[in-house]
Amino acid sequence: MLKFAPLLAAILYGLAFYQFSAWRTRRQLSSRSTELADPAMTRVMAPMALALGVPRIKVYLYEIAQVNGLAAPDGRIFLTRGFYNRFRQGDVTAEELASVVAHELGHVALGHSRRRMIDFSGQNAIRVAGGMILSRLIPGFGPAIANLLTGLLAARLSRQDEYEADAYAAALLTRAGIGTEPQKALFRKLEALTQSGTPAPAWFLSHPKTAERIAAIETLERRWVPQDR
């Protein structure tokens, strides 16, 4: 039993750390955000709300300069001030920004926050176990290799979540009559909007590559179009 104590401790630490991080994130978001009140965005999101069977979709404006959208652990949807400013400047359309909201709604609806909590705890246990085993095989390098392998696993799971949220958004946008073109158009703009530098190797990325995300959506579209017999 004692030999499993480090693994149990790692799992409990992972759960506790995730809960603390979620609490800290909620607190920070609440202190630096207000509900978005923009008539153009309200009009575009109205069909999305109708498709979901809710009166309206609440979106909050997070006062940071970065271009991003996020779903908080408590289910709230946020757009950053930097992203909203790009919309006001005409760099992003209301429909494109609505596709970000649809994507984040996908994270909430599919329970990705809860899944990340479980994954994080499991990855922490893998990191500890892997470090112990590899330290015996490769003294001095075991923990570093275990951290690297765990990071690769985390990136792969994150990419899976992004594909799922993309698919949810595509379905919602299609049902709302907006379609997927704004979603795909925004993907093509993201690198310039976020001013990202040299891309990391694909296996280190927490988000799929733009071309792969667009291709996945187009595959869904082909499935949804009735085939002539």
From TrEMBL:
Biological process per Gene Ontology, one example term: proteolysis involved in protein catabolic process
Cofactor note: Binds 1 zinc ion per subunit.
Key words, A-Z: Hydrolase, Metal-binding, Metalloprotease, Protease, Zinc
Domain Peptidase M48: from-to ranges: 38-220
CC annotations in GO: membrane
Keyword Repeat among UniProt keywords: no
Gene3D superfamilies: Metalloproteases ('zincins'), catalytic domain
Domain of life: Bacteria
UniProt GO MF annotations: metal ion binding; metalloendopeptidase activity
Coiled-coil segments on the chain, per record: none
Cofactors demanded by this protein: Zn(2+)
Family assignment from sequence similarity: Belongs to the peptidase M48 family.
Entry protein name: M48 family metalloprotease
Source organism (scientific name): Mangrovicoccus algicola
Phylogenetic lineage: Bacteria, Pseudomonadati, Pseudomonadota, Alphaproteobacteria, Rhodobacterales
